[in-house]
Design goal:
Elements: H1 2-15, E1 19-23, H2 32-37, E2 42-44, H3 49-61, E3 65-71, H4 72-76, H5 80-88, E4 95-99, H6 117-122, E5 128-130, H7 135-148, E6 152-155, E7 177-180, E8 184-190, H8 194-206, E9 212-215, E10 218-220, H9 224-233, E11 234-244, H10 249-259, E12 266-271, H11 282-289, H12 293-302
Parallel strand pairs: 1-2, 1-3, 3-4, 4-6, 5-6, 8-9, 8-11, 11-12
Antiparallel strand pairs: 5-10, 7-9
Helix pairs in contact: 1-7, 3-5
C-alpha cells in the first residue's frame, strides 16, 4: 500500500501545486518520482515527527495541502500533542498518513505496532479517520480526503497486502461499502484485516449463512445510515479490525448503538488489551492476537452465532 500511496500522491501533486509532503526520514527512495515532479514540495523533516506535524500545520495555514508520512506509531502517538494543538484545534487540512498500521511491523515488537492510533485520533475534535482495505481503496479515497479540506488520519498498510476487490469499488468517504449483500449476519471490516473478513464470509457460507460483507473504511464519521438500518436487518453484527478492541472501530460502532438506544448482538474482534510480542510475522501476530480465522470461528460458535 505504501507504493500505491507514493504513486497516487505523485499523480495528484503533478496536477496540484499546493500538495506538499513532509516525511520523517523514511521512504527516501519511495518518493523518488515525487521528487522529480515536486522537488521543493517533498520535504524530509528528519527524525523529528513532532516538528513535522507543526511544519505541516504552518504549510496548511499558508494555503498548501500537506501530507505527513511515517510509520504509524510515530506519526500518531509520538507527535500527538502537535496533532492535537497545531492540526486538530486549528482545524487545518493536514492529512496524517500512518504506514504499516496494526501489526504490519510484527517482528519489530510493540514499539512499532499501532493498536492505539484510531483511539487517539477518534478522541480529537475535527479529526476524520479513514482506513482503506487495499491499494485500490487507498487510490480512490485519497482525492476525496484532499477535497475535505479538514484534518484527516489516513491509516494504511505496509506492503504486499492482497487486493480485496475484483473490480474497482465506487467508494465514497463516510459511506460503508457493501462488498457482498447478505442477510442474518453482517461482517463490518475496517482496514487491512479485510482478507480475514473475506475468509470469515466464506466460512459462514459453508455453515449456510449468507452474511453481508462490508468495507467500513471510514471510522470517523461513521456511516450512521448504514448502522441504523443494519440494527433491524441483521440478527448478529461482527466488527473486525487490527486495532485494540478498546477504543477503535468496534468501540465506535458500539457507542453509536448505545447512544441511539438500539439493542443489537454485536461481536467485536480486535487486538486484545495486551501487548503482542515475540512474533515473527503479521500472520503469527494475528494468531497470537486471536485474529486468525480459526479463533474467530470458534468464538462465534461459542456465542451461538454459527
Amino acid at each position: 500500500m505504501r507504493n500505491a500511496f507514493a504513486a497516487k500522491l505523485t499523480e495528484l501533486a503533478s496536477n496540484d501545486d499546493s500538495i506538499v509532503l513532509f516525511y520523517a526520514d523514511i521512504g527516501n527512495r519511495l518518493f523518488n518520482n515525487l521528487k522529480e515532479v515536486a522537488p521543493t514540495r517533498t520535504i524530509n523533516a528528519g527524525i523529528a515527527e513532532a516538528n513535522m506535524a507543526s511544519m505541516a500545520s504552518g504549510a496548511a495555514m499558508m494555503g498548501h495541502k500537506p501530507f505527513i508520512y511515517t510509520i504509524t506509531p510515530f506519526t500518531t502517538a509520538r507527535n500527538f500533542e502537535q496533532i492535537k494543538i497545531d492540526i486538530a484545534y486549528q482545524n487545518q487540512p493536514v492529512i496524517i498518513v500512518g504506514t504499516g498500521s496494526g501489526l504490519s511491523y510484527a517482528n519489530l515488537g510493540p514499539t512499532h505496532h499501532s493498536f492505539e492510533d484510531i483511539a487517539l485520533m477518534r478522541a480529537l475534535p475535527n479529526m476524520n479517520i479513514v482506513c482503506p482495505a487495499d491499494a485500490d481503496e487507498l487510490a480512490i479515497l485519497m482525492p476525496q480526503l484532499i477535497a475535505l479540506n479538514a484534518p484527516c488520519y489516513f491509516r494504511i498498510g505496509k506492503k504486499n497486502e492482497p487486493k480485496v476487490h475484483s473490480t474497482l469499488p465506487a467508494l465514497k468517504f463516510g459511506q460503508a461499502y457493501v462488498m457482498n449483500p447478505g442477510k442474518s449476519v453482517a461482517i463490518l471490516a475496517n482496514g487491512t484485516i479485510m482478507p480475514v473478513a473475506q475468509q470469515l464470509h466464506q466460512e459462514l457460507l459453508q455453515h449456510g449463512i449468507e452474511a453481508e460483507l462490508v468495507s467500513f473504511h471510514t471510522v470517523k464519521p461513521l456511516d450512521s445510515t448504514y448502522l441504523s438500518n443494519a440494527a433491524s436487518r441483521f440478527e448478529h453484527l461482527i466488527t473486525l479490525e487490527e486495532h485494540n478492541v478498546n477504543g477503535g472501530f468496534g468501540s465506535a460502532v458500539l457507542e453509536y448503538y448505545n447512544e441511539q438506544c438500539m439493542a443489537v448482538n454485536l461481536h467485536r474482534f480486535g487486538i486484545p488489551d495486551r501487548f503482542i510480542d515475540q512474533v515473527s510475522s503479521q500472520h503469527t501476530a494475528r494468531i497470537k492476537a486471536g485474529l486468525d480465522i480459526d479463533t474467530i470461528v470458534n468464538t462465534l460458535k461459542s456465542r451461538q452465532v454459527l
